[in-house]
Give the backbone structure.
Amino acid sequence: MALDTKSTKIFSLEGKGLKLDTAADVEAYIKPLREMDDIEEIRLHGNTLGVEACKVLGEVLETKKTLHVTLQSLTLDMNALR
């Protein structure tokens, strides 16, 4: 699912072709993101993200205390945002 979060500050679902419409859909994939304390890059392109899934993702990102300081990249291209 995500890259090795022990050695990197990147969370990635890049190019997996996932269809994440609901909160339940996204929960199965964002556990590693929830556990990351210091994140710099999030890669989501190549997936379909629905409104409810995006809400959950946003709630998780709000908990990242250093996100506003250290986030270098958020890639959403090639997503079918609904």
